Amino acid sequence: MKTKKIPVRRCVGCQEKYDKRELLRIVRNNEGEIFVDPTGKKNGRGAYICKKMSCFEAARKSKALNREFSCDIPEEVYNEISKQLEEYVGK
């Protein structure tokens, strides 16, 4: 039986490669909206970040998401990412 290939993605914070399911996906859709995609299946350009607060802080400080999406990221998006990471760490 053929084994299923596991997709690998790069974290924008630490630049390390991880299994796609281990990362949090942030999406910019065709309308220009930027939001967190917990399912990992929404349409649009995706950027991934580790589920570690240190990687999130590094990405925020270096404006890595701004570069990935070629636009300014609203503060609400950073707050939502922070909230999602806190929920994950709390588990």
Question: What is this structure, in a nutshell?
Answer:
The chain has 91 residues and is an alpha+beta fold. Helices cover 35% and strands 24% of the residues. Strand 3 (23-28) and strand 4 (34-37) form a beta hairpin.
* CATH 4th-level superfamily: YlxR-like
Strand content: 15-25%
Contiguous runs where pLDDT drops below 50 for at least 5 residues: none
Radius of gyration: 13 Å
Instruction: Give the second-level CATH assignment, the architecture.
Output: 2-Layer Sandwich
Provide the residue-averaged pLDDT: 91
**Topology order in helix (H) and strand (E) letters:** EEEEEHHH
- Category by helix and strand content: alpha+beta
Question: What can you tell me about this protein's structure?
Answer:
The protein has 91 residues and is of the alpha+beta class. The protein has a single domain, classed as YlxR-like (Hypothetical Cytosolic Protein, Chain: A). The chain has three helices and five strands; from the N terminus they run βββββααα. It has helices at 53-62, 64-69, 75-90; strands at 8-10, 17-19, 23-28, 34-37, 45-50. The strands form two sheets. Strands 4-3-5 form a three-stranded antiparallel beta sheet. The radius of gyration is 13 Å and the shape is globular.
